[in-house]
Amino acid sequence: MRTRTRLTATLGRPPGSKRPRRPAVPRGAAFWLVALAFAVTMLGTTLPTPLYTLYQHRLGFSTLMSTVIFAAYAVGVLTALVLFGRVSDVIGRRRSLLPGLVFAILSALMFLAADSLPLLITGRVLSGLSAGIFTGTATATLVDLADEDAGERATLVATVANMGGLGAGPLLSGLLAQFAPAPLRLPFEVHLGMLAVAAAGVWLMPEPVEVTGRLRLCLTRPRVPEQVRATFLRASIAGFAGFSVLGLFTAVAPSFLGKLLHLPDPALSGSVVCTVFAASAIGQITLVRPLGRAALPAGCGLLIAGMALLIAGLAAGSLVLLLGAAVTAGLGQGVSFRAGLAAINAEAPSGQRAEVASTYFTVLYVAISVPVVGVGLAADAVGLRTAGISFGVAVTLLAISALVALRRGRREH
Fold it and tell me: Are 54 and 37 in contact, with CB atoms under 8 Å apart?
């Protein structure tokens, strides 16, 4: 009791006084401020993509090291999923989102100071931590802030903010690097300005859930109930293939364009990567519901077609085919991801749905990093073109195996 009295006196409030009420904006305005913060945070995770070749020239590292720097992002995401997966249910949405923005700000500062590989890798890990905190928490916050009958709209806005931010990042940095001064500084300075606005918006939002306790970090172990394992396996194979493609385009597309097609322009690299994420968003929003039960097989089919275009584009050195691969594979990734998550949610017990979804995302973020590092290793050993073509073949085989598993599952039912 004495300790508490001393603390409150130190803070300038007399014992027994109420904590001053924090100003908050209306829930409708808070909804859009959180959507903005979601988009700005995800934008930062892909902001360095068109700049990797510039960092290569400046610091003298290989394509393999580019993929390792990219994969460090997934390490941050997985760490956040394991440590902070359930935190917002305990300490509240707002108190969880603000640290996510702090990690994003620290990441941008690391890139501003980046004159060595350790700083680049640290910046990517911090970026992954911000994304890992934001992806689930911001989506839940938007649903909480929406009207009772607007849950579907909230999910749609979350999808657009997530994928729109991911696509806008490389486009913004590519354009700034191409047409503005200080290509390795200005994109991150602009992003810091955006993050300041986003942080102010999150600070002013009302807390939409009841705070039930204090922060306690505990490991969230991946688990899948027996009754959903077959569906989980089929969805995970397709999701693994799709997220591997996202990782490839995000980490290696600038090298493909610069070294194989002799088109090193950052604006072009950013546009190609933006195309993949835009196609993914379109697939998730417009195709999954009309396709119904055929969505997951259709997504696998689009991935196979996209890999055929990628292989042909790399073999022929064709920008048109590479763009076609970006659009087709992006659609396939979006459809297979959204359909797979819906299938898992439909079969998972309600009390374990979040846990199963977290396990699914763990698989996906392993997919976005490990295969890409394999491409980097292969590029150093056999060349970038052969490594890219081999990757296309591997993803094709994965998508085919997912189709076979889906057909077998339907026969069993």
Answer: no
pLDDT at position 397 over 70: yes
Q: How far is CA 92 from CA 19, 130, 398, 410, in A?
A: 18, 16, 39, 41
With a pLDDT cut of 70, the percent of the chain lying above it is: 89
Q: Rg (Cα) of the chain, in Å, rounded?
A: 22
The residue among 32, 66, 64 whose CA lies nearest residue 48 is 66
- CA 255, 325, 248, 280 dihedral sign is positive
Alpha-helix residue ranges (DSSP H) falling in 283-347: 288-291, 295-316, 319-347
Lowest mean per-residue pLDDT among 113-122, 166-175, 225-234, 294-303: 225-234
**Within a 10 A sphere around the Cβ of 62, how many other Cβ atoms?**
13
% of the chain residues with pLDDT over 90 = 64
What pLDDT is stored for residue 199 in this prediction?
97
- The rounded distance, in Å, linking the Cα atoms of 142 and 153 is 9
Specify whether the CB–CB gap between 42 and 134 falls below 8 A. yes
For the segment 18-28, the average pLDDT, to the nearest whole number, is 74
Contact between residue 103 and residue 126 where contact means Cβ atoms under 8 Å apart = yes
CA 20/CA 395 separation, integer angstroms: 56
In the numeric block, which tokens belong to residue 192?
């810091």
